[in-house]
Structures are given as C-alpha cells and as structure tokens.
Design brief:
Elements lengths: L25 H10 L4 E5 L2 E4 H17 L7 E5 L4 H12 L3 E4 L6 H10 L2 E6 L4 H8 L7 E4 L15 E2 H6 L16 E6 L9 E5 L5
Parallel strand pairs: 3-4, 3-5, 4-8, 5-6, 6-7
Antiparallel strand pairs: 1-2, 8-9
C-alpha cells in the first residue's frame, strides 16, 4: 500500500457533489433563514430582526464589499462590541470570500495599526465608542483602508465620524439576493485573530472554514 496516496482507500473513490461538500458555518444562517424566516434572530435595544431580514442584510454586506473590489484573500477588520453589525459581519464578510479580523477593543492605536498593516486590511468597521483609537491607528498606516462608521443606537457617549461612509449606506449599495458561493475547499481562510503579543509582536492566527464548526 502506498501511504502517500491512501492506497486502496482512495482507489476509485473520487470526491463528487454526491459524497463531499466542504464544511462551512455559512450554511447555518442560510438554513435558519429558510426554515425559521420569521423567528427572532437579532435583539438590540428596541431593534428586532428575524432570520430572513438578517440573512438579506448579510448578503447585502457581501455584495457591497464585492462591488468595492473586496473578495477572496482580502481582510475586513471590525472594531465592534456585541452589536447587530458584528453578527452580520461574521456572515457577510466570508460570504464575499473575504477574511474577518475581529480586533481587540482593549488595544491601543499602535497595536491596532500593526494588526491592520500585518493583516493587510482592506476595510475596517468601527463603532462610535472606538472611533478615536481607529482614527489614530489608520493615521499610522502607509495605505489607508476603507473605514466604515457603524451607528450604535445604544451608545451614549460622544459620536465622531471617522470613516468614508456609514454602515447602512454601505449596505444600501448591496444586493439582498447576492449570488454568493460557499468555499470550494475547507482549507480556505474565514477569520484572522491576533494573540496578545506579550512576548513580542502579536501573532496572526488563521481559522479555516471548517475550524469554527
């Protein structure tokens, strides 16, 4: 038996659509919207959205990013607390084929700037609470990513727009029927996180589409 090829265990057993589908967490929201379209999906203050609405918004986000040239192999960073846009980014960004980088909200501008540069972020979504640190971070970059302000109705502090456009305006550019496609390979990256960097520079940790399942 040839161990490198799998021998008899791979002989005449090719991967086909009938016996192999790459795993992806994107199928979770697709199924929820199909089976439970009217069930509550997002609750944030007075805001209520069901699964069908949330699914459409995720596809709008994917479409809007794609129309701005952001797709497979690109990084989209987010500096957000637990708000609806954070939920949508976890599905909308990978639906565009891009990689989601959730930034630690406790870090300073220098650390954030390093991560944005190292991860080659093409866009950044930012909550008003963290607008000052993102503004200071992108000012340190040689190439500025697209900065998108996310309005948080529950935030009570000072608001200052630091981006080129607002999140809802970005979604308005997108198509709720965006013809997304699931990954062809489970090895495709879906998210990028960074270690604390306590003994040096933070290290990027890449998750594949099968890893979160």
């Amino acid at each position: 038996m040839n161990a490198s090829t799998g021998g008899i265990f791979e002989q005449d057993l090719p991967r086909t659509p009938a016996n192999y589908v790459p795993l992806s967490p994107l199928t979770f929201i697709e199924r929820s919207a199909r089976v439970y379209p009217q069930a509550p999906a997002v609750v944030h203050g007075e805001l209520r959205r069901n699964w069908a609405e949330t699914w459409a918004r995720c596809r709008r986000l994917a479409s809007a990013l794609a129309r701005r040239g952001i797709g497979p192999g690109d990084t989209v960073a987010v500096m957000l607390p637990n708000v609806p846009a954070m939920v949508e980014a976890h599905f909308g960004v990978p639906l565009a084929g891009a990689v989601l980088n959730t930034l630690n909200i406790r870090l300073d501008a220098a650390s954030i700037a390093y991560m944005l540069a190292h991860g080659q972020a093409r866009a950044v979504l930012v909550d008003p609470e963290f607008a000052p640190v993102i503004d200071a971070a992108v000012a340190q970059l040689d190439e500025r990513p697209l900065v998108i302000d996310v309005d948080d109705a529950l935030y009570e502090g000072e608001r200052r727009a630091v981006g080129e456009l607002e999140y809802e305006a970005l979604l308005a550019e997108g198509d709720p029927e965006h013809p997304y496609r699931l990954p062809d390979d489970e090895w495709q990256a879906i998210s990028l996180n960074y270690t604390s960097g306590t003994t040096g520079r933070p290290k990027g940790v890449v998750y594949t589409t099968a890893a979160p399942i």
